[in-house]
Recover the amino acids of this structure.
């Protein structure tokens, strides 16, 4: 798509928690699509995003509503339409599963996931220095959890470096 639109892209592999490969503000826009699901500390991401954005630059971030992480994921509960709270926030697969369960999860090619509090997801952006000037929520098009049937579980913010 970039080629057909005549866009030049530079790719850099690394950790979203440590963007030291970019020593100074470089970007006008950061798109952060639900990727904090795979890290334990989302606040380090917000600090790094703030650091590498130019003044006036925007961070477009999306994430799951933390409510999706509290329920037992037994498929039988989904079929019955039952939500059984089992986990506290912040959620971590590393704490919620035994070593054998984690091993099986990895063998199936599944990633270890983390669920963050709204204080860290939204408040963390503010704490990093951003001004949030946009908020959006949306429904899951293919419900995976019972709660998806009752409320929007995708959240998104637009945060600006002033």
């Amino acid at each position: 798509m970039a080629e057909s639109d005549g866009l030049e892209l530079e790719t850099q592999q690394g950790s979203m928690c440590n963007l030291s490969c970019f020593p100074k503000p470089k970007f006008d826009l950061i798109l952060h699509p639900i990727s904090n699901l795979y890290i334990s500390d989302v606040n380090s991401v917000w600090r790094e995003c703030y650091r590498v954005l130019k003044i006036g630059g925007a961070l477009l971030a999306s994430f799951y509503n933390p409510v999706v992480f509290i329920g037992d994921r037994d498929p039988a509960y989904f079929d019955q339409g039952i939500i059984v709270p089992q986990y506290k926030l912040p959620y971590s697969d590393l704490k919620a599963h035994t070593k054998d369960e984690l091993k099986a999860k990895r063998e199936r090619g599944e990633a270890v996931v983390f669920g963050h509090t709204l204080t860290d997801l939204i408040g963390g952006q503010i704490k990093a220095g951003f001004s949030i000037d946009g908020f959006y929520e949306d429904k899951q098009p293919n419900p995976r959890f019972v709660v998806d049937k009752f409320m929007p579980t995708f959240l998104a913010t637009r945060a600006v470096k002033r």
Q: What stands out?
A: The first helix runs from residue 42 to 52.
